[in-house]
Design brief:
- The chain is of the alpha/beta class and about 280 residues long.
- The protein has 9 helices and 7 strands; from the N terminus they run H-H-E-H-E-H-H-E-E-E-H-H-E-H-E-H.
- It has a 5-stranded parallel beta sheet, with no helix packed on it. A two-stranded antiparallel sheet has the order 4-5.
- The chain is globular, with a radius of gyration of 24 Å.
């Protein structure tokens, strides 16, 4: 008695049960790999993967030039923009400016100032972002703008526990600190508190000393930015140690006429500034 094994029969994607197709796509998305090339498999894959790829977008100043063309066809799919303003890198000579070699006030201000640089043109980046988003049709849209401002070097010196991630609860990344006695880290644990100057470096207010000569000039600059009706929620998380001036935020928020939610996670003030804010 002879037996034979039936040859494998190829199954078309659209011939699979919907629940099987959904499981396959979910597995691909959760795998964490790049999905853009998979969108060419079929029109069905393209539609499903683009819905995932364009829902949450990380946007940097370098990507602003091509942002409009990149999302033009899928603008309606975008519901979250993580706007990452990456400040300049710095080395150990700048991680705690003035520590061990005191600086005068002008020198300290220059060392910790957060303003426009070639790598991170803050004002030009906001101008470009608001100009782009001002053209988006706000009809029935729900768009969250998550603003982060940090330096990649922040987690390389005294504050090794810092992580810079989008606001996505499904992603959890744990890091292990290196052995770095110079910055108070021994066997993966912090054994010495950072000096005051290190805190000043990462907690300094945004654009405190420039590029504007005074706060009123900065506020006027915010006021002249295009109105952005598409944004309905703004997120300012504790991931960003740098502080925003309250009045500057008020002028920024005024550019979002359909703003429904503000999620602001400020850090508690300390030193002389804490005494002033505690009285409020």
């Amino acid at each position: 008695m002879s037996s034979s094994i039936s040859p494998y029969k190829k199954q078309r994607w659209d011939g699979l049960p919907p629940e099987i197709r959904l499981l396959i796509l979910k597995a691909l998305i959760q795998d964490g790999g790049k999905l853009a090339h998979l969108a060419t498999v079929s029109r069905q894959w393209q539609a499903e993967l683009e819905r995932h790829n364009f829902a949450r977008i990380k946007l940097t100043p370098l990507r602003l030039a091509n942002f409009s063309s990149m999302v033009h066809r899928n603008r309606a799919l975008v519901s979250y923009i993580w706007f990452c303003l990456e400040l300049d890198d710095y080395d150990c000579t700048e991680c705690a400016p003035g520590h061990g070699s005191p600086l005068d006030l002008d020198e300290l201000g220059e060392a910790i100032n957060i303003s426009d640089t070639d790598k991170c043109p803050i004002t030009a980046s906001f101008q470009a972002l608001f100009s782009i988003l001002s053209t988006w049709d706000p009809k029935n849209s729900v768009l969250t703008l998550d603003i982060s401002i940090y330096s990649p070097s922040d987690s390389e010196h005294w504050f090794k526990y810092l992580t810079f991630l989008p606001d996505n609860p499904s992603q959890t990344i744990l890091t292990k600190a290196d052995e770095d006695a110079q910055h108070g880290w021994v066997a993966g644990s912090q054994h010495a508190a950072p000096p005051r100057e290190a805190f000043l470096k990462v907690f300094n207010p945004v654009m405190e000393l420039g590029p504007f000569d005074s706060d009123p000039l900065e506020f006027e600059w915010w006021d002249q930015l295009p109105s952005v009706p598409a944004v309905t929620s703004v997120l300012l998380r504790q991931q960003s140690r740098r502080r925003w001036k309250p009045d500057a935020l008020a002028h920024m928020f005024a550019r979002f006429p359909r703003l429904q939610e503000i999620h602001y996670e400020p850090w508690r003030e300390w030193d002389c500034m804490q005494r002033k804010t505690d009285k409020g």
